[in-house]
Amino acid sequence: MSLVFDNVSYSYENDGDFAVKDVSFALQDGKLLGIIGHTGSGKSTMTKMMNALISPTTGKVFVDGEDINASKEAKRQVKSKVALVFQYPDYQFFSSTVFEDIAFGPRNMGVPEDEMMRRIEKAMHKVGFDFDEISQRSPFELSGGQKRRLAIAEALVMKPKIMVLDEPMAGLDPRGRAALAKLLRSLRDDGVTLILVSHNMEDIAELSDEILVMKDGSICMQGTPREIFVHAEELREINLGIPIETRFANWLSEAGMPMPECVIGLEELVEAIASAFKERAHE
After folding, report:
1. CA-CA distance, 177 to 183, in Å (whole number)?
2. Largest Cα span, the chain
3. What is the CA radius of gyration of the chain?
4. C or N: which end of the chain has fewer Cβ atoms within 10 Å?
5. Between 35 and 15, whose confidence is greater?
6. What integer pLDDT is reported at residue 283 of this predicted model?
């Protein structure tokens, strides 16, 4: 397993008021885990514990079978295994050029210059950047979608086993969202384990292999997108929605059109509607 939370709880004040309470789950290698929950449900606190930015008050977090908080060396090592890509990429940039920003991590870790250059070129290619065109540009002059891709390139250059992305699609136009979704699928196909934290149910449904639903610091549901979004009423009770395609299919079902129990994604919705019309045509 890439990542294991073993009965993890966290209190910011150590006063018994827990932001995360008794969380246990195991994430398989090469999978994409979606995490959803209302504001204050514990999502951000969990992601910070995934690469030892903070340590559990109780319980343990394991990466590749090792307790990441067992020692200072373990905490240092996990930084190269688990990469965090924050919601606002501007906060991660501090160099005058794209190249220097990407180079900071491997250079700081003592990666030899020739190996560093290979990594940088490979990471930039993976996110769709032309090295000659963009390497000397300022990170702060890039478009929103380019900034997200740069943040991912900065993570990839460290060759992480796990990448945690907080609201990576926020603020992107449809073209930018589609390009980033394609990139995330490609990373998963390459064997990178991904964790996607998002309020966008369409992104979560489209990309996730499994979903954790957080409520008041604890996991209240866990399963595949279809197993989660079939519970529309329960999700509504904790201020969460369902994907628009699922919602539309439910509305059609209530209006009398035969629909599958839980429709996920636009393609499945179109197929379900076409099948329903064919069925009516044969009656």
Report:
1. 10
2. 71
3. 21
4. C
5. 35
6. 61
Q: What is the pLDDT of residues 168-214, one digit of tens each?
A: 888 888 888 888 899 999 999 999 999 999 999 999 999 999 999 99
Query: 164: which 2 tokens?
Result: 């945690």
In one-letter notation, the amino acid at residue 40 is G
Q: Write down the residue that tokens 């329903």 correspond to.
A: 276
* Residue pointed to by tokens 């993976």: 126
Unique residue bearing structure tokens 């009656």: 283
Segment 84-121, tens digit of pLDDT: 998 878 878 888 999 999 999 898 888 999 999 999 99
36 CB-side CA count, 13 A: 28
If you average pLDDT over residues 212-223, what whole number do you get? 96
Look up residue 259 and give its two tokens: 């629909």
Give the closest residue to 246 by CA, choosing from 238, 237, 215, 233: 233
pTM: 0.90
Per-residue model confidence as pLDDT tens digits over 148-169:
899 999 999 999 999 999 988 8
DSSP string, the chain: --EEEEEEEE-SSSSS--SEEEEEEEE-TT-EEEEEE-TTSSHHHHHHHHTTSS--SEEEEEETTEETTSSHHHHHHHHHHEEEE-S-GGGG--SSSHHHHHHHHHHHTT--HHHHHHHHHHHHHHTT--HHHHTTS-GGGS-HHHHHHHHHHHHHTT--SEEEEESTTTT--HHHHHHHHHHHHHHHHTT-EEEEE-S-HHHHHHH-SEEEEEETTEEEEEE-HHHHHT-HHHHHHTT----HHHHHHHHHHHTT----SS--SHHHHHHHHHHHHHHHHT-
Please answer whether residues 41 and 23 qualify as being in contact, where contact means their C-beta atoms are separated by less than 8 angstroms: no
